[in-house]
Amino acid sequence: MAIEWIQYGIRVNSISPGYIETPPPGTLAAPQWQRDDWNRLIPMGRMGKPEELMPALLYLASGASSYTTGCDLIVDGRVLIAAGGKQFEVVRSGTGWKAKVFDGPLCCGHRPSVEVMMNSVAKNVGRRAVGAMLTGMGADGANGMKAMRDAGARCIAQDEATCVVFGMPKEAYERGGAEQLVPLPKIAATLQNLLR
User: Fold this and answer.
1) Spatial contact of 98 and 71, defined as CB atoms under 8 Å apart
2) Which residues contact 35 (CB under 8 A, 6 or more apart)?
3) Predicted structure pTM score
4) 45: left (phi over 0), alpha (psi -120 to 50) or beta
5) Per-residue pLDDT tens for 74-129?
6) How far apart are CA 147 and CA 153, in angstroms?
7) N or C: which end of the chain has fewer CB within 10 A?
8) Distance between CA 25 and CA 41 in Å, rounded?
9) Cβ atoms 84, 62 nearer than 8 A
10) Burial of 9 (C-beta count, 10 Å sphere; 0-12/13-18/19+)
């Protein structure tokens, strides 16, 4: 699976699977303050394990409204990160789907909200979707995952033993959204099996 941040070209390195490769110096199409922020957190051209780089990626995503334009096509192997302060939906685009990023009210106290995104997946993707609820506080996304499951999607949640906070996965499971609880190291393989 590739992690691809469209505007920044971050992707899993194909030579060293499991590592994220940051773009070479001078290749970021972003305002100078964003490039400075990025370079302070992760030197350009550096490779590292996703767990080493993800805090910086999430930090950058949390404060930027321009990272995801809202017209990115959703394709196999791509992970899109919603911009902070915006809602994110999955909508039809021809024979596939695209990301829709928009100003919207808080939902479950959040913007972006997992609830909004999963409800849109239930409505627009239905049984062709799979979903996973990972560690998190509260119940954001629990009803949305139930809507996905009711629409025929296959859904799982992270088990308590491997969660930092067993809030969102617990709520998703107890409300009938997640059909099983899965340890974190087995989530990727479980999702792949559900796609078959």
Assistant:
1) yes
2) 28
3) 0.67
4) left
5) 777 666 777 778 888 999 988 888 888 888 999 999 988 999 999 999 999 999 99
6) 9
7) C
8) 14
9) yes
10) middle
